[in-house]
Write a structure and sequence with these properties.
This protein is mainly alpha-helical. It has one domain. The chain is 87% helix and 0% strand. The chain contains five helices and no strands. Helix 2 runs antiparallel to helix 3. The radius of gyration is 18 Å and the shape is elongated. About 5% of the residues have low confidence.
Length: 107
Amino acid sequence: MKKIFAILALFLAFSFSAKAQNADDVITASKADVATLSKVIPVPENSKKAVQSAFYYKHKANLQANLTEEQKNDIAVKTEELLTNALGEAQIKKLKSNTELYNKLIK
């Protein structure tokens, strides 16, 4: 009985560790995307948190296994909507003009 509890405890410990690592990876990736975006488009200080949360949403959603192309497109559309709300139409048009960067950040 003690062995079963020990195995269960180890399993749970590794599960929580893996989730924490994924969360850290998502946060790191979203911060990197904000930094990349800031090199091309000036991101106001009051909008950085909203921009980072948009990228956090994108990375978190893309962690799901077996996403269809339709689901990936929905994630990209939602990410673009969140960025448009945070930055404005003019800034998004400027981002869209740089197609390679746009695809990297949105998709």
